[in-house]
């Protein structure tokens, strides 16, 4: 019984390092590796990809196909079911080692008839409908974007704050007339970091003035999954997108909530973006989505004052 390993990356600017790590940790014995050319389109149906075709031609009944995550092989529910039909026909097992489908035996057969269990198809369709595959894909696309940016010499992630040892230098330069933008370039930090370092020197700030509002601090709120799914496809401001992307998924029975940490203004902005879930002219609201939005609205209203 052979162990057949399938690998794929989306562009020639990526490596298989993450897949290698996941598969190495799995301890696969004597793997036979089939790796797609990076130039192979990820939108191509899996059964039309050259190396996966070679894998199927090489395979024999009883062999196991190993992949690190489901999205390395498929891009949608239809693809999953097509691949499962072929694996079932050829009597091959499928083992996914990370991600939403890693705990399932997707090629399980009925002990008497040998047919693919209908519950397998049901589980695949349910998970796909719940957005599990889409979230795995989003993680891949984010990873792809970071790797592509690094290849162009652009480093991702939050830019650092001003080092404590340089704070006085920054403040002195600001008082001498150096602009915030110029100081940000000089020190390799964001303009926000410079503003934080010189906050009490800014024209709009009066030291010790009780009328000056304190800066907003991040607030953690649980966003219903249906709201999060809607917002992921909406047009968002950079700060809103960052807060959504950095949210932590918390399982809630069949669904999930997204634990989002953001300043109040960002939460209010996200709440406003999902207003269409309450229904728009000519398009009635979906009750479950409307209920989810109102739950989020209640949390925002309860924890964040919206005005004086």
UniProtKB/TrEMBL annotation:
Residues 2-153 form the Resolvase/invertase-type recombinase catalytic domain. One of its GO terms (molecular function) is DNA binding. InterPro entries: Resolv_N (IPR006119), Resolvase-like_N_sf (IPR036162), SSR_resolvase (IPR050639). SUPFAM superfamilies: Resolvase-like. It holds the Pfam family Resolvase. Belongs to the site-specific recombinase resolvase family. This is Recombinase family protein. It comes from Streptomyces chromofuscus.
């Amino acid at each position: 019984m052979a162990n057949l390993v399938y690998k794929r990356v989306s562009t020639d600017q990526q490596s298989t390092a993450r897949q290698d790590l996941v598969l190495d940790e799995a301890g696969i014995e004597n793997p036979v590796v089939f790796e797609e050319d990076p130039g192979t389109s990820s939108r191509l149906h899996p059964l039309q990809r050259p190396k996966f075709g070679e894998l199927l031609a090489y395979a024999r009944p009883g062999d196991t196909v190993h992949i690190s995550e489901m999205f390395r092989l498929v891009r949608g529910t239809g693809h999953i079911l097509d691949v499962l039909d072929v694996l079932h026909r050829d009597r091959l097992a499928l083992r996914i080692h990370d991600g939403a489908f890693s705990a399932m035996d997707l090629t399980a057969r009925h002990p008497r008839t040998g047919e693919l269990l209908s519950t397998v198809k049901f589980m695949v369709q349910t998970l796909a409908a719940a957005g599990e595959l889409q979230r795995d894909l989003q993680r891949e696309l984010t990873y792809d974007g970071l790797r592509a940016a690094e290849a162009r010499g652009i480093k991702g992630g939050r830019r650092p704050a001003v080092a404590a040892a340089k704070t006085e230098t920054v403040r002195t330069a600001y008082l001498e007339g150096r602009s915030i933008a110029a100081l940000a370039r000089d020190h390799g930090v964001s303009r926000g970091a410079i503003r934080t370092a010189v906050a009490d020197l800014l024209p709009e700030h009066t030291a010790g003035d009780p009328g000056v509002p304190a800066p907003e601090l991040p607030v953690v709120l649980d966003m219903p999954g249906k709201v999060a799914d809607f917002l992921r496809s909406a047009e968002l401001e950079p700060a809103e997108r960052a807060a959504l992307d950095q949210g932590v998924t918390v399982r809630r029975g069949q669904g999930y909530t997204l634990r989002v940490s953001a300043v109040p203004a960002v939460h209010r902005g996200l709440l406003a973006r999902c207003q269409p879930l309450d229904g728009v002219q000519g398009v009635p609201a979906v009750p479950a989505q409307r209920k989810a939005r109102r739950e989020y609205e209640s949390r925002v209203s309860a924890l964040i004052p919206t005005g004086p």
